[in-house]
Amino acid sequence: MGEQLHDLIFKWGFSSETFVCNALLTLYSRFGKLKLAEQLFSKMQQRDKVSYNSLISGLAQSGIYDKALQLFEFMQLDCLEPDAVTVASLLSACASVGDLCKGKQLHCYAIKAGMSLDVIIEGSLLDLYVKCSDIETAREFFSSTETENVVLWNVMLVAYGQLGNLYESFKIFSQMQIEGLRPNQFTYPSILRTCTLLGALDLGEQIHNQVIKAGFQPNVYVCSVLIDMYSKHGKLDTALEIFRRLNEEDVVSWTAMIAGYAQHDMYIEALKLFKEMQNRGIKPDNVGFSSAISACAGIQAFNQGRQIHAQSFIFGYSSDLSIGNAVVSLYARCGKVQEAYSAFKNIDLKDNISWNGLISGFSQSGHCEEALQVFSQMNKHSLEANMFTFCSAVSAAANIANVKQGKQIHAKMIKTGYNSETEASNVLITLYAKCGNIDDAEREFYELDDKNEVSWNAIITGYSQHGCGNEALTIFEEMKRSGVVPTHVTFVGVLSACSHVGLVNEGLNYFKSMKEQHGLEPRLEHYACVVDILGRAGSLGRAVEFIKEMPVVPDAMIWRMLLSACRVHKNMKIGEIAASHLLELEPEDSATYVLLSNIYAVAGKWESRDRVRQMMKDRGVKKEPGRSWIEIKNKFHAFYVGDKLHPLTDKIYEFLEDLNERVGEIGYVRDQSSLWNDVEQSQKDPSVYVHSEKLAVAFGLLSSSYSIPIRVMKNLRVCNDCHNWLKFVSKVANRAIVVRDAYRFHHFENGFCSCKDYW
User: Fold this and answer.
1) How confident is the model at residue 12, as a pLDDT?
2) Is the backbone of residue 63 left (phi > 0), alpha (psi -120 to 50) or beta?
């Protein structure tokens, strides 16, 4: 309509009239048609201050700050004066581009022109000093103004909030009420955001009470900030209560609630709410889409995540950074390596979150070597790593027991100062514990001043994995004395520690104390630990009775614990019961067939054993092959059972034969029951069934310095024969050998194992 009117004005000959052109300039500027406005301005024969004011305001309000400031200079050359609205727009432009010097010049101009007391100018000036981080000038200017302007108080609240100064923020908030000013719908969100940022939930709850008394509880904007505060602090029930009371369909509130669920690992709830939001016809914003995709990543819902990503394209968010980062995390966490790299490359302006999405995602999906490679690439690009980056990289190194690279990352953390952070120390404790260096883990723990529950849990779990049960229980008692409240994770570590060292009564007492003393309802993993405690101790009958009396339905983990114990104690009857439940729950898990087969093999029940193998074959279930890793000179070497693919195969087997002779001379006798059947036991070529850990240890002894302990990682439980063999090897080779299997660490030295043959 405006453009049609412009055509008519041109036809009727009014295009040379300045007041008519000014009206058109104002029209185009207000509707964002700035190209048309600029074209009209350039063709005007005479321009007055209204012409300049209209275009400058339009440019500034549309974020085209450079042109707005340049036009102001031309205006001054034409000896024309801007009005208060234009000066305010120019001040906003200076604030946005951080041009404090130009802003101060405008401040001087406003004083000379008598505009400095204008309410709009005051707000813009204060905003300028705040956004340019000149807080001292901002405070001085604020103190010199008339304090009845609530907008100025709100700007100061935002200023101190951005600086993380809760004391000054609350001081401003209290002072304005003392002086009789009533906070408005923008005041409360300003102080509440500061509480959210600094974790001051108690103060936030007090301000929430004021919100209710002031009658702002129904206000959508205030409620969206309250929802965000409670969500980020984990009080999701309170956030949901506020959310459900809202009458208006506000996308910000929906997004805050969805993001809160996703951030606290309540992924199903996040996705349900996202679907409900769409069903109500509310258009998600970029934060809503990225939160939903992140929720899909959390539960590895790959297809659903891709669908939501496709929807974000339809809504115009194809190049949004937050959505791009969420997609990278989705692919990486779902183990889609190439797709993750592709999504990463598609992001034009990558930030730390982009890199972190790859590193943490690969680490969590088991692609730890990929994660460490990405971390190395990040360093090569001279990009600054943050706490999350370091923690993700350390976790990746811990998961594959790469202590050397873990130590290198630790060194970088020391250089950047992140090592002093509690979160960093926690992952380092886990790193050293998982890499077999329990002494280093212990030192990291005791050097940490500000321990939290994660710190205590990490060292308790570490001790448990290394079979240091008494040390784990001592630390647990120390944890309670220090006032740190045990969690469900704590008790998994404590009960596992009892299991590894045979502390049956102690374990049962700790289990009982969970509910009676600490108000923690035991979960399935705790029941599984108790079954393991009883099973390892040979109390298989008690374990069965315990399972029958459980108030929850036993899962596969519990029956697997019982079956493993039956394998150790050669109890075929109970083993068959446990296996039958497992085959119903997880018919595709090869471990069940293997454990039951071993029970039959030990008992000499070869027909039953063959029947199980046939069942595996008929169902298409393949046994997971035993695999062991060892790092030599910055390179990982992997071995399978009977492996002959290594370049040094001949030397390894020759050395292994020599080792077998030496250990045989001091009493080692091969345990035939560790082999699968009578055919394997009568095999003339014993090298065919040499287990992977023997090959890895032999290679390690051949290839490493005498002073370095041999460190081997295995994906399955070490068998009785290999365990016994490793004890003898540690004695004849006079070397410390550390083996991390699927259950725990074994430290072999001078003919003994740290587990004391109880594992």
Assistant:
1) 45
2) left
Contacts of 269 (CB under 8 A, 6+ apart): 261
Task: Confirm if 579 and 591 have CB atoms less than 8 A apart.
Answer: no
**Average pLDDT of the segment spanning 15-27:** 71
Residue 703 binned pLDDT confidence (cut-offs 50, 70, 90):
very high
409: which 2 tokens?
């990352």
Task: Specify the residue for token string 């992924």.
Answer: 267
501-522 pLDDT per residue, tens: 899 999 999 999 999 999 999 9
Q: Distance between CA 269 and CA 225 in Å, rounded?
A: 20
| Cβ-based neighbours of 260, under 8 Å, separated by 6 or more | 227, 228, 230, 231, 232, 236, 239
Element (H, E) at 740: strand 737-740
Query: pLDDT band at residue 231, thresholds of 50, 70 and 90?
Result: very high
Helix (H) or strand (E) holding 627: strand 627-632
For 356, the 3-state DSSP assignment is helix
Q: Which two tokens stand for residue 687?
A: 């090298």
* Residue 434 · residue 401 · CB < 8 Å: yes
Within 8 A by CB and 6+ apart from 26, the residues are 54
Q: What is the DSSP string of 435-504?
A: TT-HHHHHHHHHT-SS--HHHHHHHHHHHHHTT-HHHHHHHHHHHHHTTPPP-HHHHHHHHHHHHHHT-H
Task: State how far the Cα of 706 lies from the Cα of 643, in Å rounded to an integer.
Answer: 25
Query: What is the mean predicted confidence (pLDDT) over 208-229?
Result: 91
| Cα separations in angstroms, 255 against 259, 315, 340 | 6, 15, 25
What DSSP character marks residue 318? T
pLDDT band at 40 (very low <50, low <70, confident <90, very high): confident
Structure tokens at 688: 């065919």
Q: Give me the helices (H) in 181-318, please.
A: 187-198, 201-214, 220-232, 236-245, 251-263, 267-279, 286-298, 302-314
Q: How close are the terminal C-alpha atoms of the chain, in Å?
A: 84
Q: Which amino acid is at 353?
A: I
Least confident of 286-300, 324-338, 552-566, 616-630: 616-630
Q: Is the dihedral of CA 651, 657, 661, 662 positive or negative?
A: positive
Give me the phi and psi of 331, to 5 degrees please.
-65, -45
The Cα–Cα gap between 143 and 154 comes to 14
Cα(345)–Cα(335) distance, integer angstroms: 17
Asked if residue 366 lies in contact with residue 399, where contact means CB atoms within 8 angstroms, the answer is yes
Rounded Cα distance between 367 and 579, Å, is 31
- DSSP-derived secondary structure letter, 674: G
- The residue type at 404: K
C-alpha distance from residue 6 to each of 1, 14, 32, 44 (Å) = 9, 10, 16, 13
d(CA 254, CA 248) in angstroms, rounded, equals 11
- How many whole angstroms separate alpha carbon 289 and alpha carbon 181? 39
Using DSSP, state whether 525 is helix, strand or coil. Answer: helix
- Structure tokens of 97? 């581009």
Burial class (CB in 10 A: 0-12, 13-18, 19+), 509: exposed
**CA pair distance 556, 586, nearest whole angstrom:** 7
Q: Determine how many CB atoms are found less than 10 A away from the CB of residue 484.
A: 17
Query: Which of 303, 308, 295, 363 has its CA nearest to residue 333?
Result: 363
pTM of the model: 0.77
Beta bridge partners of 428: none
What is the arithmetic mean of pLDDT over 704-718? 89
